[in-house]
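sorry for the late reply, my laptop died twice this morning and i had to redo everyting from scratch. anyway the thing you sent over, i finally got around to it. pasting the sequence first so we're on the same page, its 372 residues, then the predicted structure underneath. double check i copied it right bc i was rushing
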Amino acid sequence: MVMLPSLTAAITECVLNSIDAGATRVQVSVDAPALSFEVADNGRGISAGDMRMLGERFATSKLGSVQQLAAVATHGFRGEAVASLARCSLLEVVSRAAGAPATLCKTFEGGKILSLGPATEPRGTGTTVKVRDLFYNFPARRSIVVSTVPLAVEKTKRALEAVALSYPAIGISVFNLRTDTRVLHTSKHDSVLATFSELFGGAKAGVLRPLPEHHNTKYHFSGYVHSPTAELYSTTDFQFFYVNNRSLTSCEFHRLLNKIYKAFQPQTRTYDRYPSFVICLECDPALYDVTVEPDKSRVLFSDEKTPLDILRCLVTVCIFGIETVDNGTSFLGLAPPTRRNERTRWTARLERAYRARSQNVRAAAGVAGYRV
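ok and here's the structure:
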């Protein structure tokens, strides 16, 4: 089952289930003080056969064989979050599968099935998950969650912003039932930058620069990084990094990017400033393990040095504007070196190439106090 340490985690798991079901629109309604919420989507829905298994421990419709555990491509890799919600809340799941003649409804209380049959009200294709009185039968956990209620809606908004950026073609809305306000809304877009602009404004989107194209087939990076001439931020709230659309928090990739951009801070500054970025790494799921943390916010790579070196190269090229080095050989087409001394020479080669193109590094960067 999926661990649900908070109201935000429970909502996020349900939204990710909707995405796994192929939804293009997800609507979330939250009543944080009551520890209740509802997630409705227009995905494929749940078939009658899957509905009978819904809520059972270790039951999932996302894996067809044990071998698929070695390369998980969905978000809910340890079974549906519904199994966990069924044990710790009053749960109702209403769903209609594509092409099904009727809408089905299944209800739970404390892990026990209360009913399974036709819904009283029909709906279109998709699923609605209604959770009431979360952790009502786990008093210790509930007391901890209740203490965080004032921040629950904001944390949910922040978590779903990260989801929206990784799936710009999916519209996501969040309503605060207690205040009757909409706290988040994203339309369907064809680019990450358009979604970023809708979430945080055109000014913040305007400082992002696309990563250059590269030809590594094992690790492919795409996305946007902060312009070297733009003012950095005092917060890391605009940093988003994904592995196969799975959002990661405070990982080695974040630290690498912050270290690179630290060179753009004036030497006299006494506090840190941070860049914004939205970067997605696409690779074979077999190259990393997603079971490091219960909330799946970290992954463990079998070889972390290679993707880090590629990202270091791409960001440096994006910042310095270098397209080719070594007599016209495409730098991005080269395989990253594996030995430490080779990587040091690799980075130094970039800096020499940049200095050859610009006699004044500070003027080219446009940032006072820039250091290389």
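The two ends are 49 Å apart (CA to CA).
thats about all i looked at so far, will dig more tmrw
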